[in-house]
């Protein structure tokens, strides 16, 4: 996608075989900065501190982190240490494990001297594949937007509600939930996006609104609790969200608050779609509520907030009583029964074991 007319991916090779560049998403929307990752620890910290975030991008960063680790130590012990360090960065997004398994399987039976070069090639493939997957998700989701657009009076936009950021900032490019929206916009379909602020990190307000605005897509920022009210008044035509892990039964784990949007959508007859690459499907998990580990993040995310002063200075301030007890669950699980359909790179299917297996030959 483009930033001020310049095309960007969210992760790229800077010095071939040596360093990787990423967008520092913790600085958005106030400052656009890039960072250079030159070591395994750089990559691990980038994932832990959410400099990069979003399930597909976490996987891509982990793949390049594996490469950076091999540059320093390509022994068998080094491979195990690299895997373990990256694996413990974040617990919920299954793309992390998928990417690490891909990289380890690639190098396990290779001579240590061959491993780094092979890994750099595979990491690049993972990124390129992610872009193509996002495009395919976009095309499949576009058909759903087109169906709704055909029912709207002339001149009326299709109103899409999304939650958190499942945009191009969460992937290598295009996004998952936003890919159909971008493609509808590019095709000339009138579309408008309701952007949930997504507390506590405000990833809707800081990331989704930023990228939609930079691309020119009409959108409106709303507080997290406004969505149900808008649905009651017929102002939402469909919901599209992303997911960090999808179970074999079709449950979806996404940013905290997604479950409440799904409940409101069901109560108001609003279609609720989840856009996902197949890499987020965890075929080993059946019951999302009981089996998916939910990340508990630092309380400061809830008690502090960053903002820009009139002077342009960006500062962090306290918004809660000092010393208040905090529980900060980063994700929740939406049961398959609340999901209208899953938008994947292979098509749209029911949120069920049968639906998923029909697309992915399991």
From TrEMBL:
The keyword Membrane does not apply. InterPro entries: IF-2B-related, IF-M1Pi, IF_2B-like_C, Initiation_fac_2B_a/b/d, M1Pi_N, NagB/RpiA_transferase-like. It catalyses: 5-(methylsulfanyl)-alpha-D-ribose 1-phosphate = 5-(methylsulfanyl)-D-ribulose 1-phosphate; 5-deoxy-alpha-D-ribose 1-phosphate = 5-deoxy-D-ribulose 1-phosphate. The active site is at 244 (proton donor). Substrate binds at residues 53-55, 90, 203, 254-255. Pathway: Amino-acid biosynthesis; L-methionine biosynthesis via salvage pathway; L-methionine from S-methyl-5-thio-alpha-D-ribose 1-phosphate: step 1/6. Pfam families: IF-2B. GO terms for molecular function: S-methyl-5-thioribose-1-phosphate isomerase activity. The record marks 164 as: Transition state stabilizer. The keyword Transmembrane helix does not apply. Keywords: Amino-acid biosynthesis, Isomerase, Methionine biosynthesis. It comes from the Bacteria. This is Methylthioribose-1-phosphate isomerase.
